[in-house]
Amino acid sequence: SIYYKFDPPFVVHLQGGASNRFLQVTIEAMTYDQTVTADIEQHMPIIRNNIVFLLGSVTYEQLSTLEGKQKLRADILTEIQKVLKEKTGKPGVEEVYLTSIVMQ
Q1: CA 85, CA 93: separation in Å to the nearest integer?
Q2: What are the pLDDT digits (tens) for 65-89?
Q3: pTM for this structure?
Q4: For the segment 13-66, what is each residue's pLDDT rounded down to a tens digit?
Q5: What single string gives the DSSP state of each residue in 26-94?
């Protein structure tokens, strides 16, 4: 397994609620193909953009449950695979791990 850490962590404003809430997420992707890390880096602006929009669309309430966090993880994986498939012809990433989640 080869792991790729997205650095810096993602920080977004969470949707809904009367108060300002923020989300910080550290993401690591897992692949079995060494060339995928170079593909991720080459297409990082698109990947980061799409993840920022995805993270910005979730609510504090959704992320307060285990199911919500698991869905977010799956959605991030799908988004990364979609970008890589469009740009390289292969999804490349096998798994995504949320190694840190801070909600405030």
Answers
A1: 10
A2: 999 999 999 999 999 999 999 999 9
A3: 0.93
A4: 987 766 788 999 999 999 999 999 999 999 999 999 999 999 999 998 899 999
A5: EEEEEES-THHHHHHHHTHHHHHHHHHHHHHT-BHHHHTSHHHHHHHHHHHHHHHHHHHHHHHSS----
